[in-house]
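thread from #wetlab-drylab

HS: before we spend reagent money on co-crystallization trials with pyridoxal-5'-phosphate, can we at least see a predicted complex? here's what I'd submit
DV: go for it
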Amino acid sequence: MNIQVTKSSMPSYEEYCDEIKKLWDSRWLTNMGVEHKTLQVELERYLNCPHVILYTNGHLALENIIAAMGFPQGGEVITTPYTFVSTTHAIVRNGLVPIFCDINPQDFTIDVDKIESLITNKTVAIVPVHVYGNMCDVDKIKEIADTYKIKVIYDAAHAFAVKYKGISAADFGDASVFSFHATKVFNTIEGGAVCLQNDDLVSVLNDMKNFGIRGPERVVFVGGNAKMNEFQAAMGICNLRHIDDEIIKRKKVAECYRDRLDGIAGIKLCKTQEGVEPNYAYFPVVFDGYKYSRDVVFDKLAKEGIGARKYFYPITNDLECYANYPTAGVEKTPIAAYLADRILTLPMYSDLLNKDVEKICQIILD
Ligand SMILES: *Cc1c(COP(=O)(O)O)cnc(C)c1O
């Protein structure tokens, strides 16, 4: 067998060709052309968000929105280590200090009961992560942020199309950031976006992603370059046409896994959160007290040509690049550390066949 942990969603070859044909006529390949504008408007509609600023990838979107907030250097940002390295890097690359908060063992998002004890007079923001598409406790986080007058920037890379009490994941906090990387539920090959409720930071983000250029002879800001190009936007336009179908298919895959793995001693699955419309981005499984350890299951699957992923392992406060950071160290986040040793995300993509899911489960259970 050869089953990867994920397979990028793509439109048909013909559909994409049709979409990019106009680029051969216009010869306009990047710099906010027609495709970029179209995708932006369509995402604003789909995500029900007034301001979507497109990026060449999710990481630069996150880096730029943190920079756009204008926090003082050395400011402290409360975040979790149970995430993709991008979250922590985006904080550190902005000259800010990551303060690692532990996660809760139910949905693996930030433990809101542990945030307040980490707040100091240097705290400027909270950067929580909607892990696997599980929504953070957005209500409690808002309450804390309002009390202490600090900003909230959600890493919503996993949460495209997720809704909480009918509200889009794009609409929480001071900003929410999506990734449209090839491995995400919705992709633009590489890509990302910052989603904002008001227009305060829209122009500074546009300056940051395009050198601060406002006109042929006018540069107002020392910006970088993080623009989404027309081929990326075209892929997004095509993929967005099929996103609802994709999620329905993913749901069927998730149900198939659940049928086989739910209730097995030592295997824990994520519960569907109350009030949340999920996107089935990943299928995480925790091996805790199971007859085989996570690493043994991983190796068994690998031997059969099945790619699972130790996601997230290692956690970011355990990475070599943060070894000398005074705030790093896994002992500060014991639940995240415990989970990182036991978690495996199983293959998940829309056209994963039921019979393949059954084989995967058979190998795990044999
Ligand atoms: C994918 C991802 C990112 C980074 O997005 P890119 O588009 O790959 O730059 C950030 N945070 C999390 C949690 C992610 O999964």
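DV: The chain has ten helices and 15 strands.
HS: ok that's useful, forwarding to the group
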